[in-house]
């Protein structure tokens, strides 16, 4: 792999007295798609939140271009070129599609080279152009997910963190959304994909990390890791996964 754009080093995270992550070493290069898989409660969302500055971590535990950024506030991370599509989407209800997107433009990071514009976003998801005046709450789940991804892209991320973007969506919509990923990466944006569907995670990523109880239980090139190895890493025993 080429030099890491974003990395974590012995990252630990807590919720009060409860320790959720135990020394996570993770890295992703520009233009890569890296999947994070693991059972419920394994720590995938906690890793994304720790990277995004939503949980407090020591500076050196998260590095961007080799510089310590751990513990920086979320708005600083956005300015640094990191964006999150959160689980549950968290759109601004009562606001139109275009107003949800404009919020991101107003708070965009400085990675101008990434170059996301409304025009480019509408080319990626034509439906957003059609529905731009519509209040977000009247959209389907899949359409809302496109707004959430669009909002994140308009903040010009070099690293896009996606937390279960396929959750609760029809297979056809999931396919449509996943088909957009290569266009997102082509200008060098890296994507971290938390995904419950292991088959989809494998087929959509260059590399994957499997997490188990706050640890990385397996990592490797997605095309090379066997189902058996994933099954064992996923459940902590000899189980197979689809
Ligand atoms: N706000 C919180 N307060 C206390 N404990 C939490 C909180 N959020 C998560 N946890 C705990 O931290 C651990 C890791 O949770 P996390 O949400 O990161 O897992 P996950 O792999 O993303 O799972 P899921 O697929 O269910 O979202 C779990 O034991 C969970 O119960």
CATH architectural group: 3-Layer(aba) Sandwich
**CATH fold descriptor:** Rossmann fold
Percent in helix: 25-40%
Side by side, the strands of the main sheet go 6-7-8-3-9-10
Distinct ligands, ions and cofactors found in the model? adenosine-5'-triphosphate
Quote the beta fraction: 15-25%
Distance between the termini: 28 Å
Keywords: Amino-acid transport, ATP-binding, Nucleotide-binding, Transport
GO molecular function, one term: ATP binding
Domain ABC transporter: 6-238
InterPro entries: AAA+_ATPase, ABC_transporter-like_ATP-bd, ABC_transporter-like_CS, BCAA_Transport_ATP-bd_LivF, P-loop_NTPase
What is this entry, summarized?
The protein is an alpha/beta fold and 242 residues long. Helix content is 33%, strand content 24%.
Overall description:
By secondary structure, the protein is of the alpha/beta class. It has one domain: P-loop containing nucleotide triphosphate hydrolases (Rossmann fold), CATH 3.40.50. 33% of the residues lie in helices and 24% in strands. The chain is built from ten helices and ten strands. The chain has helices at 44-52, 74-80, 97-106, 118-124, 126-130, 141-153, 171-179, 181-185, 198-204, 227-235; strands spanning 6-15, 18-28, 33-38, 62-64, 67-68, 82-85, 159-163, 190-194, 207-212, 215-221. A six-stranded mixed beta sheet has the order 6-7-8-3-9-10, sandwiched between helices. It has a four-stranded antiparallel beta sheet with strand order 2-1-4-5, covered by helices on one side. Helix 3 packs parallel to helix 6 (141-153). The protein is globular, with a radius of gyration of 17 Å. It starts with 5 loop residues before the first strand and ends in a 7-residue tail after the last helix. The chain binds adenosine-5'-triphosphate.
């Amino acid at each position: 792999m080429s030099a890491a754009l974003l990395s974590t080093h012995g990252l630990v995270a807590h919720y009060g007295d409860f320790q959720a992550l135990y020394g996570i070493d993770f890295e992703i290069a520009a233009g890569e798609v890296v999947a994070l898989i693991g059972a419920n409660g394994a720590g995938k969302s906690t890793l994304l939140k720790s990277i995004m500055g939503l949980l407090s971590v020591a500076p050196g535990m998260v590095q961007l271009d080799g510089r310590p950024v751990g513990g920086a506030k979320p708005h600083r991370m956005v300015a640094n070129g990191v964006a999150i599509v959160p689980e549950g989407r968290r759109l601004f209800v009562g606001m139109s599609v275009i107003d949800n997107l404009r919020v991101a433009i107003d708070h965009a990071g400085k990675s101008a080279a990434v170059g996301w514009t409304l025009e480019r976003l509408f080319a990626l998801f034509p439906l957003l152009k059609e529905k731009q005046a519509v209040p977000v709450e009247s959209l389907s789940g899949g359409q809302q997910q496109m707004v959430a991804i669009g909002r994140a892209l308009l903040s010009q991320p070099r690293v896009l963190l996606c937390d279960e973007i396929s959750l609760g969506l029809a297979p056809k919509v999931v396919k449509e959304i996943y088909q957009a990923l290569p266009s997102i990466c082509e200008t060098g944006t890296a994507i971290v994909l938390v995904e419950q569907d292991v088959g989809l995670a494998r087929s959509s990523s260059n590399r994957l990390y499997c997490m188990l109880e706050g640890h990385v239980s397996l990592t490797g090139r997605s095309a090379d890791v066997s189902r058996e190895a994933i099954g064992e890493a996923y459940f902590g025993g000899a189980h197979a996964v689809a």
